[in-house]
Amino acid sequence: MRPPMKQTVIVTRNTGGNDGGWGGTPPTSETWTLPCRVDEQSGMTTNAVGDEVNYSAEIMLAGLADIKYNDHILYEDELGRKTQGNPKRIEPVRFFNGKSVITVVYI
After folding, report:
1. Cβ-based neighbour number of residue 54 at 10 Å
2. I need a surface site. Which of 23, 33, 102, 105 has the fewest CB within 10 A?
3. pLDDT at position 36 over 70
4. Alpha-carbon separation of residue 50 from 25, 45, 55, 68 (angstroms)
5. Residue 68: which of 3, 7, 9, 13 has the closest Cα?
6. Domain annotation covers residue 20
7. Which neighbouring-strand residues pair with 37?
8. Which of the residue ranges 10-19, 26-35, 54-63 would you say has the lowest mean pLDDT?
9. Is residue 90 a part of any domain in this protein?
10. For 25-34, 48-57, 72-81, which range has the lowest pLDDT when averaged over its residues?
11. 21 is a domain residue
12. What is the dihedral of CA 48, 60, 85, 16, to 10 degrees?
């Protein structure tokens, strides 16, 4: 059973790139909204390379969410306070049958 997803986050991903040379492609970005549950708490976790890092929010997304480490995530609570950043850790949680139930993202 997954928790209720009553909040939303805005995910921005840079899809194009500038190769740095003359006539290169201009940088573009893609933005979408995902339903989630956010626990605003600070703590320590390990990132993708094994370093210990601080995080300020734990975001639970339904299923196996399409989130990458270079995405920018923005969450705004009911009081208008914004929490934003790149994912420090992405952790899919699976049932015994191997199906991904939620994806936990720490920012």
Report:
1. 10
2. 23
3. yes
4. 34, 9, 14, 17
5. 13
6. no
7. 60
8. 10-19
9. yes
10. 25-34
11. no
12. 80
pLDDT score, position 3: 76
Closest CA to 83 of 103, 107, 54, 53: 107
Confirm whether 83 is domain-assigned.
yes
Domains in the chain: how many in total? 1
Pairwise CA distance, residues 39 & 88, whole Å: 15
Structure tokens at 11: 């995910």
Taking Cα atoms as reference points, which of 87, 62, 90, 57 lies closest to residue 75? Answer: 57
d(CA 18, CA 26): 5
The tokens describing 85, both together, are: 């950043």
